[in-house]
Design goal:
Chain lengths: 302, 279
């Protein structure tokens, strides 16, 4: 591609400022999603490199004057041409610049609207669920609790929890095992392995409660198997079943936010649970693989 | 497929035509000429359709056109289905039942769209296999292979987003699994899943988002890429099969006898300097 007879110095020299400018814009976009400090750093990078770029384009650059000052005729010709095309070049650059600004002004808000709502917490707040009096949960026995997380949105928010009353801990605090039914392999509904006592089925405030003799939990999709504490005992899951935070208000069992569990040592009221921010199914929360997922699931930490 | 520009004896044939026939032809061709003079579209259409192709091509080279036809069937049936489909959790399932059970010929159009989706993907794979096995991805057609791969990815994305729309249990749980597979991607995975379902679980936003992706964004991308794909096919020509006795591709005058495309036998420079194909 090289044409020696036209090999003249590039005037002005190719600028690296646009690359820094682009990196700054990228930092701003990432910062909008991840954190405010990154946003500020990105904005600073953008401003600095943008200023340098603009100065480079329109200012008297030392390279330019040095090149046109050279006495060789070829460069002198280039200088003459430069004088003649200055207006055209300026208009081209102005058209590109103004067009780019208008385009960015239209595109960025639209892109933001398309992408950002998924990340700033819209639609990911979980509501507390009232499962009714704790007397409905016999000690040492699992109960399948099925409820609508958001009755306004209907069936699509139907969730299932496996609740076991463990009595009281050594510190005399009520203890419940509160497993979320979604498999931590890829999110299918886990089933309790054991007979369901349909006779004892009851409905409390729209929550369906069915006692079950569950020795383990199995997933119908890909064969994941969990023991009675939610620990993975076989199959593809990478951690233990997710659990709910819970509280007791006026004698009622209230389910709160979900969290992820690395593994559980011990059983029942003596269980020691390694607790992590809620992660998507299939995502490691502990071990060496957790380094592949450095960012907590959006909305899980707020 | 290949029409000769001129043929020995055509002029003699024209001379024998009756005056009346020539007048009729002039009347028929007048609107075509009118459009051509004002747009040049007739020339472009000829450039697109009336191309020279290797003499030993076979049905194997029709798989691309078959994929295109399958996509057009999906596009047309999809538009008609959108007349009756309601992308809202409360009514999506019922509207699909309505299409299948109540709307006249709805069962047929929905069936065409459902089974046609698989046909489209399968034909793209066959087309890809033909291109690979015939070596038709080699210079200068690498870019067209890349565009084809993007088309395959977009086609699969169409399948993924379309699968949720019937809003039955299969659709719901398959999409749960599909989104969570996305989430297992290192570093970007959770962001991707978060974008796709717009929350920590599939909800109403997921359905309308998948609907918009399925019928606006992805088909638009596919149409644009098909345009590029076809442009490159016309520009670069059809590759002759590996067992072809003649060298493939258009003459490249600047390299004295070498040809574009798949080169098997170095062709001797023709004495008159004319190629046997015009691309």
């Amino acid at each position: 591609m090289s044409e020696p007879e036209r090999d003249t110095p590039h005037v002005p020299a190719p600028s690296l400022w646009p690359i820094g400018f682009a990196i700054g814009i990228a930092c701003v976009l990432v910062g909008l999603v991840v954190s405010v400090p990154a946003l500020i750093v990105g904005a600073l990078i953008t401003l600095v490199f943008g200023f340098l770029w603009v100065r480079d384009l329109f200012g008297k650059h030392p390279v330019r004057s040095a090149a046109s000052g050279e006495p060789t005729p070829a460069v002198a010709t280039v200088g003459d041409v430069d004088q003649n095309v200055d207006r055209a070049t300026f208009l081209s650059l102005a058209t590109i610049g103004v067009g780019g600004l208008i385009g960015a002004g239209i595109t960025l808000p639209v892109l933001g609207f398309g992408v950002l709502p998924s990340f700033v917490g819209d639609g990911i707040e979980t509501k507390d669920v009232d499962l009714g009096p704790i007397s409905n949960f016999p000690e040492g026995e699992y109960v399948i609790a099925t409820y609508l997380e958001d009755p306004d949105q209907g069936e699509v928010t139907r969730r299932t929890a496996f609740i076991r009353n463990n009595g009281r801990t050594e510190d005399d605090v009520p203890s419940f095992t509160t497993l979320f039914s979604r498999c931590v392999h890829l999110g299918c509904p886990v089933q309790p392995n054991g007979p369901i006592d349909e006779e004892a089925r009851q409905e409390v405030n729209g929550v369906e409660l069915r006692p079950v003799l569950a020795a383990s939990f199995g997933c119908p999709c890909h064969g994941g198997l969990y023991d009675s504490e939610g620990n993975r005992s076989a199959g593809p899951p990478v951690r233990s079943l997710d659990r709910y935070e819970f509280s007791i208000k006026d004698g009622n069992l209230i389910l709160g936010r979900l969290f992820s569990v690395g593994d559980v040592e011990g059983t029942g009221a003596k269980a020691r649970i390694s607790k992590y921010y809620r992660a998507y199914p299939g995502v490691h929360v502990d071990g060496i693989e957790k380094w592949l997922y450095p960012i907590p699931t959006p909305g899980s930490t707020s | 497929m290949a029409l000769p520009d001129s043929h020995p004896g055509v002029d003699e044939l024209m001379a024998t035509k009756s005056t009346r026939r020539r007048q009729l032809e002039a009347v028929a061709l007048y609107p075509v000429d009118w459009v051509e003079e004002r747009s040049g579209l007739v020339g472009y259409t000829k450039w697109f359709l009336f191309r020279k192709v290797p003499s030993d091509i076979s049905w194997a080279q029709t798989l691309g056109a078959a994929s295109l036809t399958a996509f057009l069937v999906q596009a047309i049936t999809g538009v008609v289905l959108a007349f009756y489909y309601k992308p809202d959790p409360a009514s999506a399932y019922a509207s699909v039942q309505n299409i299948t059970e109540e709307v006249t010929l709805g069962w047929l159009v929905r069936g065409m769209h459902k089974w046609g989706a698989s046909v489209f993907i399968i034909l793209m794979f066959f087309h890809m296999a033909r291109t690979f096995l015939f070596g038709a991805y080699k210079y200068p057609r690498e870019l067209n292979w890349i565009i084809g791969v993007l088309l395959l990815v977009l086609g699969m994305a169409e399948g993924f987003t379309g699968y949720l729309l019937p809003w039955d249990n299969t659709a719901y749980w398959a999409t749960v699994v599909g989104i969570n597979i996305n989430a297992t991607g290192p570093i970007v995975g959770p962001f991707l899943a978060q974008f796709l379902q717009g929350g920590l679980n599939i909800g109403p936003d997921t359905l309308s988002k998948f609907y918009a992706l399925h019928m606006l964004l992805l088909p638009g991308g596919i149409m644009a890429l098909i345009g590029l794909h076809l442009y490159l096919v016309v520009r670069l020509g059809v590759t002759s099969p590996p067992w072809s006795a003649t060298a493939a591709g258009r003459m490249r005058p600047e390299t004295n006898g070498a040809r574009e495309g798949l080169i098997r036998t170095p062709a001797p420079a023709p004495p008159d300097g004319n190629g046997d194909g015009d691309g």
